[in-house]
Amino acid sequence: MNINLAQLRAFTAVLDAGGFAAAAEQLGISQSGVSHNVAALERELGGPVLVRGAGPPRPTPFGERLLVHARAALAAADAMCGLAAQRNGLPSGTVRLAAQPAVCQGLLPDLLTRWRQELPRVSVTVFEGEEDEMSAWLKDGTVDLAVLVNPPAPAAGSVQVAADTFGALLPADHPLAAEPSVAVDELEDDTFLFVDGGCARFIREAYQRAGVPFRPTHRVSELATLVTMVRAGVGVSVVPALVQTMLTPEAVFVPLRPRLTRALVLTGATARPWPPAAVAVLQATAPAGI
Residue 172 is part of which domain span? Predict the structure, then answer.
């Protein structure tokens, strides 16, 4: 049996990227090259590893079992290459990084630019997801690093990349828009818009502390939808400060009173060593760590 890393990379990339064309773009090869590598893997293994058809490709039951070992093999190969590069003083490799949508929009652009300048031979690939997804991705090896919110016991070497403060998101013509801060009980008479996800527990906590019933009128799944509705004057919301990068003059962010903050921590899996390239990214972000 002659299985090679190119075949395993193509297999995992199709699943991670959601299709053969997207995998080809991610890997920097042709779509036919991706198809050839996956087909060659299936021939070597004697059966299909992907279900092709309507919708994104998904693993067969055998492919699901194979995926764990494929990720482990690729991680080991990347780690060996990273160790060799580290020995020569040149960190290199690909780091797969997971983050929530607000972090992807408000924090990662500057960090990606910084890493690209300081670590020119390290490539960082972003996976956008929610908190429960990211924890699972770290555990099964889908990603090397993740930006987690208030992790209970971050591993040594983790780095706090931001202290994100919450505030009220208001239409620009709202009576409280010019105030220096806002308490949640001052929003009780407004139509409240709520986006579920990583921020939900903090928003509920703010209302609980204030003794105000939490009764959102509208629930949406995307931050962009939330911002658009507030801009249009549909209602108000409570959001993390990172959302400010999405705002236009029609909406304003006013800090909450009392202050409510979440810690955003860049960390890796707790059950296995971190790849050298991932360690280099953490060190370039904040050498002191936490």
Answer: 162-263
